[in-house]
Design brief:
The chain is of the alpha/beta class. Strands 7-6-5-4-3-2-1-8 form an eight-stranded parallel beta sheet. Bound molecules: pyridoxal-5'-phosphate (PLP).
């Protein structure tokens, strides 16, 4: 199946109002342009260097999503090109993003990444850690970042019920933060969850953006 065929087939199953991010990590520029040609504009990369290189040579109206772990020493290079940073998992990283955003004169949109999977290896905050960040004086003084919601990755498993429970927990974290810290903030509206194998469950559990790679571009 071709990239454009896959993309069209998936797009048709995604309800309006939910954003499909085509995860283009490891893919060539030609492959990305095949998706671009039929209207795809949101692309996800997990490595800052790769995002920057592609952003510099591909059309400027692409919205680049950084979906992978971000190290503080890579913040500066990626900020000029990034539309949304999905995986903020510490106050230290948030501070660095704000600091570089001030220098750049650009407001940066971020999501807080939660650890919802059983796997130890995955990154992300607990709800208590997220609350600690939002309560900190440090966070309150940051005027160049906007937290737009939450992101998470389910356990890599065939157990659909477990995946569903994990997505439910992410949605409940979103609701708790929304009610307590962002009740009047229209921009706090995003739940980034769902990948090729589980985006249908994620949509049923309230996802607002799904990150789909191999189902569009083929196996990596
Ligand atoms: C690679 C990746 C995806 C896409 O994974 P597929 O299984 O290829 O759809 C989604 N989210 C993150 C954070 C990723 O690293």
């Amino acid at each position: 199946m071709s990239i454009s065929h896959n993309l069209q087939a998936i797009s048709q199953t995604i309800p309006t109002g939910i954003r499909l991010i085509a995860v283009s990590k490891t893919r060539t520029e030609a492959e990305i342009m095949e998706a671009y040609a039929i209207g795809q504009r949101d692309f996800g990369e997990n490595k800052p260097q790769e995002l920057v290189a592609k952003a510099q040579s591909l059309p400027p109206d692409i919205r680049w999503h950084l979906i992978g772990h971000l190290q503080t020493n890579k913040v500066k290079m990626v900020l000029p090109y990034v539309h949304l940073i999905h995986a903020v998992d510490s106050l230290r990283l948030l501070s660095q993003i704000n600091k570089e955003a001030v220098l750049l004169g650009k407001q940066i949109d971020c999501l807080l990444q939660f650890h919802i999977a059983r796997e130890e290896s995955k990154f992300g905050l607990t709800i208590d850690e997220a609350i600690e960040i939002l309560h900190s004086e440090d966070y309150k003084s940051m005027d160049h970042i906007r937290i737009c919601g939450v992101m998470g990755m389910a356990t890599f498993t065939s157990n659909q019920e477990l995946i569903r429970q994990e997505f439910k927990s992410l949605q409940s974290h979103f609701i708790e933060l929304k009610q307590t810290y962002f009740p009047k903030a229209d921009y706090f509206a995003e739940i980034s969850m769902g990948m090729s194998d589980d985006y249908r469950i994620a949509i049923e559990e309230g996802s607002s953006m799904v990150r789909v790679g191999s189902a569009i571009f083929g196996v990596r």
